[in-house]
């Protein structure tokens, strides 16, 4: 699942007071670090932001905006987050660093001159100036890494979507800049526990004994020499180069699945669909096969999505596999009114997949970019799905 990054607005109410306290705390900690530096006391935390200005060593992709050739649609009502007719992809680059620190699991990369490299140091719903490395006086212990490190770890990289779209594609950026996998002694990654992480790392031929993991209990690495690729684009945005790269690294398989798929969320307790049993029963009468992606390998998931002609699915990480769909595959996404995240809608626009999103009805409907509650139910009804099929001329 993709998480939208939002920035704090003007202070108001209890939330405004909390932001004010955090801002004041950051200022005090930064000033304390600056004072310590003047007294020749070693510091490990950032004292400001590094915007990369003139220090980017190699540019890979230029910033560009792409218009949707197939405009994704919403069923019935409109929503401001689903109004884009084009999408902006950020410039990508690769940069060499010396004596830099990588903190996690919410990633913070700090340069040798104690500046936070903000574009790769993402904390959800938090502006770069208030990143946790500014708010926390005592930062995690760091382990020294001698030799060359490739920094791949990204905030959210323990989830399928961000692992596939933010972590792995940075290998592509490094290769485009002239760095092959065997050039590095260390690969700094998020904690590797899931089978999909192990499977995809094997496709990239990254040896497990070279992995330097950042576990959930926080730690850091002080890198003698490091190569830092930018994120492939803004978090939650999947550029066409990422789609092509992921298709190229996942091997083909003989796995067979139907032309019509419903993607089951399995045992997940989040974003439950009250009418799911009724919906599934009806979809089965329409020739749909029910798939739980958590039970099959990445290469089999890729094959299932590549052969599908129509996919119905609740919002969730399994829809990351839309990157493997052929252009023209029809997508119906079921979304919670409390979490109408447009990341897969935008992915469909990039991948040329006809799309209809169904946002459920609820008194808690969100019409802003603050999507912090991602666990609410999906209130889609069977009647909603039938209407979406009619709009796609599938009825």
Element order, helices and strands?
Answer: HEEEEEEEEHEHHEHEEHEHEHEEHEH
Number of helices: 10
- Average pLDDT: 87
Give the N-terminus to C-terminus distance in angstroms.
29 Å
Q: Estimate what percentage of residues fall within beta strands.
A: 15-25%
Multimeric status of the protein: single chain
Stretches where pLDDT is under 50 for at least 5 consecutive residues are 3-12
> What is the number of E strands?
17
Rg over alpha carbons: 22 Å
Helix coverage percent: 25-40%
Derived from helix and strand composition plus strand pairing, the structural class reads alpha/beta
Total discrete domains: 2
Structure write-up:
It is a single chain. The protein has 395 residues and is an alpha/beta fold. The protein folds into 2 domains: 13-66 and 90-249, no CATH class; 260-391, Rossmann fold (3-Layer(aba) Sandwich). It contains 10 helices and 17 strands. Strands 2, 6, 7, 9, 10, 11 and 12 form a 7-stranded mixed beta sheet that branches. It has a 6-stranded parallel beta sheet with strand order 4-17-16-15-13-14, with helices on both faces. Strands 1-8 form a two-stranded parallel sheet. The longest helix is centred in the N-terminal third of the chain and has 26 residues, at 13-38. It is globular.
Q: What's this, in brief?
A:
With 395 residues, the chain is of the alpha/beta class. Residues 3-12 have low confidence and may be disordered.
Name the descriptors.
about 400 residues; alpha/beta; Rossmann fold; 2 domains; 7-stranded mixed β-sheet; 6-stranded parallel β-sheet; 10 helices; about 25% strand; globular; disordered N terminus
